[in-house]
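Help!! Second protein's tokens look totally different from the first
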Amino acid sequence: MTDPLTDADDEASTPLTPEERAALIPSYITNRGLLNEAEQLAINNAVAWAFSRRRNVLSEPFLRRLHARMFAGVWSWAGEFRTTPRNIGVEAWKIEVEVRQLLDDARYWVDHQTYPADEIAVRFHHRLVFIHPFPNGNGRLTRMAADLLAVRLGRVRFSWGGGDLAGAADVRKRYIAALKAADGNEIGPLLEFARS
């Protein structure tokens, strides 16, 4: 028997543990489609909030607040780092240290113009998605955070392949391939994907 919230064909989402599922706030959600709608409504509100004024995206409290706003009213764990293991990401007990190190690195890249602006934002995205700090929503959070950083650095938001990463299989495959290339220290494909 399949579970409509964890076993559906939506490979874009991290499977949820039973404990995490228990943290689902709306009682009407019984399938992935309803979950996606509820999350998207919250995300739309978070986009309006996040881009309404200049934000310090390179801070842990801001990243937590952004995640909380993106999934407000949907998940009770919104904005909280994960405490459970995943098949991707660092071990849960390393998350805070890894995030702090990334934020320090990114501030250095910005202050010293180590890379061009787009590359700083894309490298930030890649490292944050690699850490995988939250139970779910990491890809959506890290893309929005990279967009905010790009705007702060005088660039426009990324197009991220120009498609819906959750709904367009070909776009998602290109994104995953670009992330895997970045895992191997080849950032070019992810830079290209971000602006395609």
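Here's the second one for comparison:
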Amino acid sequence: MYGKIREDLSSQLQSIREAGLYKQERIIAGPQGVRIRLADGSEVLNFCANNYLGLSSHPKMIAAAHRVLDEWGFGMSSVRFICGTQKIHKLLEKKLSEFLGTEDTILYAACFDANGGVFEPFLDEECTVLTDALNHASIIDGIRLTKARRLIYQHNDMDDLEERLRSCGDAKYRMIATDGVFSMDGEMAKLDTICRLAEHYDALLMVDDSHATGFVGRTGRGTPEHFGISGRVDLIATTFGKALGGSSGGCVSGRKEMIEFLRQKSRPYLFSNTLSPVVAGATLAVLDMLSESTHLKDKLEKNTSAFRRMMAAAGFDIKPGNHPIVPIMLYQEKLALEMADLLLKEGIYVVGFAYPVVPKGQARIRVQVSAAHKPMDLEKAVDSFRKVGKKLGVIQQ
């Protein structure tokens, strides 16, 4: 039987390669950081990690992880309600609730699991979920697990969202689900308007703030703080795998009764091993650091502004905004991959994004700026982009 599927898969893989859509995994031969070593021994500047605050291999994080490893061990070998809950997990949930300004928090092995388990417990066939057209795959998959009616509203189109809210007034519960920051564009959801609509139409609001927690908002509390609606979002999902140390793990934070219900009903929580105490302890160290100072967030904002300004001056088509996700729009799939390969030869590690990660005809290189980048790193990247861009005809000579 495997002979038939092997032939089909080989054919499809070849088609993916020919279309320029094959995702090649590059090997890093050392720790994550601004400067990384590749398998061939070369060192390059990293401009495509979610390492927004530069904490992935920060000495304080490594030291915290060692301390926790010695005190609490490596793995839990169990789920939470059997014998997989330590004091350190409860402390992290308490700290996250304080940091995000919510009533309670539940931990997951990954934010993908959090989004996979946050909808089904609340929404049955009598309910409706309204979801942005560009929401992350984890939100899409989580919604698919429910029996609720699904209404997709046009991306960030508040008139379309309101029209769809009106159309489902007979639903037992209505829940709006959106990314706080959309990962391919670095664009923020219009959370102030969404929150107003949710309250007007008596709908619940769920926000995935993975690309915002730790550095968006006046003190880094995310998009609710940025839009002045802290305490009004019912559920916030986020990750520890980006700004908060870059490891693994995620959570859902929000209304007390909803979090308590997730502990009883959320399948990824009930049937997956507990988050490693090492990740829990290191994440606690991150939260303590971010609560003491906004230095890293401020450095990230400065770097982002400088990089965006220099790239625009060089003539590149970049998505507007002020987020450290900076999409360099190329539109053609093969061009994006070719440009990324040439930039690697110049010592700049970036990746070309093409369909199905982004819509067809919207291929790009997604640059991600870090607080750990130095001014000379930013200048080197812009110079390399300019050199390769001229060679490929992306910008004028």
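Reply: Different proteins will give different token patterns, so don't panic. Residues 36 and 356 are 27 Å apart (CA to CA).
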